[in-house]
Amino acid sequence: MPRWMTLPCNLPNLLSGLYLHIIFLLGSVCVACSDCTPEQLAAIMNCSKHERHARNYDYMEGGDVRIRQLFSRTQWFLTVDDYGNINGTQDPTNCYSILEVRTVSEGGVLAIKGVKSQYYISMNRTGLLQGKKIYNENCNFKEVFLENYFNAYSSTKWTRNGKEMFIALSQKGRPLRGKKTRREHIASHFIPMKCREEERTGV
């Protein structure tokens, strides 16, 4: 009898053997995982993700640091409060308006942090401004020097339909979503102002 004619007869046995083999493998995995601690299980599940996304930010330690207030063309000082909220104030003595502007890399890439709150200004993929305690790539902004002597700060990580998204304060001192900002809008224009302590030291 040709070999191909015996296949239908042997098929149930083959499927049965394959099924038992799969059950054995699954049982082995379950037994192995049951012996792991929760920390080990978390490490197993996340190890590849950590390898892909781990970043070393030691290079920030040597970056140029300036202490500034960012005064918007809409007449507001940019602030970062203790809850990571980004807003504007018209009080030049507001302690949350004192910002650390640190050079992250060449090409005018900066990280901006509230001196009192210790929150970094960050922008997510939707253009929302928010404070972050831990620095990451969302906290990087490119400083753009404008012809009107103001500066603009665009996210280096996120764009909207190929267009830059900027830090911006509305006429009411509210942060604008990046998708609503443009380089030419006055809400995106800031003057970095030296703080009084730095005026005396010449920093």
TrEMBL record:
Entry-linked InterPro entries: Fibroblast_GF_fam, IL1/FGF
Superkingdom of source: Eukaryota
An annotated Gene Ontology molecular function: growth factor activity
Keywords for the protein's UniProt record, in alphabetical order: Signal
Family annotation (SMART domains): FGF (SM00442)
Pfam families the UniProt entry points to: FGF
Keyword Signal set for record: yes
Cleavable signal peptide: 1-36
PANTHER family (alphabetical): FIBROBLAST GROWTH FACTOR
UniProt record similarity statement: Belongs to the heparin-binding growth factors family.
Name by which UniProt lists this protein: Fibroblast growth factor
